[in-house]
Design brief:
Length: 433
């Protein structure tokens, strides 16, 4: 069977494998049944090894054809294409991207790495902006620092501008200045330490209980398939008991209990069968399985190998759960553009909301956002209506035919979209469009 080859990088993989085996070019060409000159052109990325030629080369080298056709190069070419798409004004020669990656793999790797680093820094800026804007600890700490700075400035101005101060008052001002300076230094050190420990906040007891639970799930790759087995649930509970705070342990235990109950109603085998028949549509999965839509979303997002992100909230807009997906900036504390479909669903209980959205920044990507809101009456008609909305986030290559793409930023403060009609404040970063 012919094996499709989409990349000239196969030449480099063939050459590397041949040299690793200590084979001469003529020897490999003879075994594969091609001329040495043809093999030389393939290895130097001047010809593509297609169909049976690639299969014969793979057999001679003792590897699968896919290893030679793809290797690590497929992802490299994809990254180079994404970098070119992010900067169309550069006029990159997309028709020669494979040739570039094959001839200059070091430079191509460096370019792709820089592109990835730029995207990572954009996500870090968005996360820090969200934390600085909404984190109550940071807000209080910054207020304390500003208060100490104002006090030091005021005291220093009095001492500098007044020459005939009574010695007793001068000594008092000096004591105040020393105390405020100490308070300023201590507060600054604590704030810097807090920011430095952000990556391991759950281990330091600085994270919220929700962040602790989400951090635990992130370390597990967001997979809890063990809930379908009693021994697996015991293993999960042992991990939950190792969380730092008592509240996080209670929340983690509640999460495991919910996941186990939902796995019993929608086992992995039934979920995979529904996905095979109907694709990644939580409405159809819920319909064929006879379960609530939000349950179907959770099962889809937390199954092994899932590429989907998930975020849920209650009627107040407070985020209850966040499973991020690369390239889609989910806020941690407050509302932001990426949550528009989620909050739209919150206002329309039991009505599906679907939108194709484009993230902002150099690493802009397309996603399919599927949101749904469920309501319940735990105290009957005489009690409050409780709403919970969820949004499944699926990476896609294009929008459905005829559907407009919704452009989403992070927050107005750092959003580069110049012509957004919903902007609330000017951006502090350079405009990109």
């Amino acid at each position: 069977m012919a094996f499709p080859v989409d990349s000239l990088l196969a030449g480099k993989h063939i050459r590397d494998r041949r040299q690793a085996l200590g084979m001469r070019q003529a020897e490999l060409a003879d075994v594969a049944g091609i001329s040495p000159s043809y093999l030389n052109l393939i290895e130097h990325n001047r010809r593509k090894a297609r169909g049976d030629v690639l299969e014969r080369l793979a057999r001679a080298l003792g590897v699968e054809p896919s290893v030679l056709a793809e290797g690590a190069g497929g992802a490299l070419v994809d990254d180079l294409r994404a970098a070119a798409a992010a900067m169309p004004q550069a006029g990159a020669e997309l028709d020669r991207v494979e040739d570039f990656a094959g001839r200059f793999p070091g430079w191509a790797g460096a370019l792709a790495a820089l592109y990835g680093r730029a995207g990572q820094l954009e996500r870090m800026v968005a996360a820090l902006n969200d934390r600085i804007t909404h984190d109550p600890h940071l807000s209080a700490s910054l207020h304390e620092l500003l208060s100490a700075v104002a006090s030091v400035r005021s005291t220093s101005a009095i001492l500098a501008e007044t020459e005939d101060i009574d010695p007793e008052w001068r000594a008092r001002f000096h004591r105040n200045l020393a105390g405020d300076s100490e308070r300023l230094a201590t507060g600054a050190e604590a704030l810097v330490a807090y920011l430095d420990r952000a990556e391991r906040a759950e281990d330091e007891g600085l994270a919220t209980p929700q962040e602790e639970v989400e951090g635990w799930l992130a370390r597990r790759g967001w997979q809890v398939e063990e809930v379908e087995d009693p021994e697996g649930r015991a293993l999960l509970m042992a991990e939950v008991e190792a969380l730092a705070s008592a509240t996080a342990r209670r929340m983690g235990a509640a999460f495991v209990a919910q996941a186990a109950a939902e796995a019993a109603l929608l086992p992995a085998a039934a979920l995979e069968a529904a996905l095979t028949l109907h694709g990644e549509d939580p409405g159809m999965v819920a319909q064929v399985a006879g379960v609530p839509v939000l349950m179907a979303m959770r099962r889809m997002a937390l199954r092994p190998g899932s590429r989907a992100g998930l975020v849920t909230c209650d009627a107040s807009g407070t985020l209850l759960f966040r499973k991020p997906v690369e390239g889609f900036a989910l806020p941690r504390f407050g509302a932001a553009c990426p949550l528009w479909p989620l909050f739209t669903a919150l206002t329309r209980p039991m009505a599906p909301v679907a939108a194709t959205v484009a993230s902002a920044g150099r690493s802009a990507r397309l996603f399919r956002a599927l949101a749904f809101c469920e309501s319940r009456l735990p105290m009957g008609f005489g009690g409050p209506e409780l709403r919970e909305a969820g949004m499944l986030i699926l990476p896609v290559d294009s929008a459905p035919m005829g559907e407009a793409v919704l452009s989403l930023g992070t927050s107005c403060r750092i959003c580069p979209r110049a012509r957004c009609p919903a902007r609330r404040e000017p951006s502090i970063v350079a405009e990109m469009e």
